[in-house]
Predict the 3D structure of the following.
Amino acid sequence: MTQVTLESQIGSESIVQDETELDYRSMSRAAVLGLVFGLFGLLAWVSPMLLFLPACGLIFSLLAFRSFQKYPTELMGKVPASLGLFLGGLMCVAAPIRHTYIYYTEVPEGYERIQFSWLTSPTGAPDVPTEQAIALNGKKVFLKGYIHPTSISSSSAKTFVLVPDLGTCCFGTQPPLTHMIEVRLVADKFASKSFRQFSMAGVLDVTPNLKPIEGLKGVYYQLEAEHFQ
């Protein structure tokens, strides 16, 4: 009788152990990555440079669902994978539409969109205004850039230096001369320190001689900005 009971207990423990082993499933790494990239992909709404984030979220989420089909009893994580798939897909569609709309509507009437690269001298070349820059002298232009941190000291500045990228902006070093534009805001426009990109439109003035700037060597380019955003 005792032997039968013991065998019964051993059998029961074996069944419980087998069921526990069958119930154990590991979390899909692809599902977790899909959710993480999907959440960070919301930043693509702000900057088109970050569109790779929702794309990665979409890819990892799809890989997770493929793994679920291949190993249905071994993997878990359908909820995070679903969220990653939704967020990644949403931003992959909505963000490009938003940025395309902004691109085609942001330039004020009467202004020409230009790139900062048109003004900057090539690597190894003399750091003087380019031929494209000289041709733009006196023209009404629209461009985007970042406020150099050493050029502004208050929360209501009317004048600052604009640079083309965050590398130049964030480290506070002396940028190349053709990488700087002295911006003067008109009307009721004011600027303060910020690491975000700004858009502005105004008349570009290109001078052959450096204009001294406090804390910097000087500038060749000046912009009287009527539009600042």
Summary: The chain has two domains: 2-105, 112-228. DSSP finds six helices and eight strands in the chain.
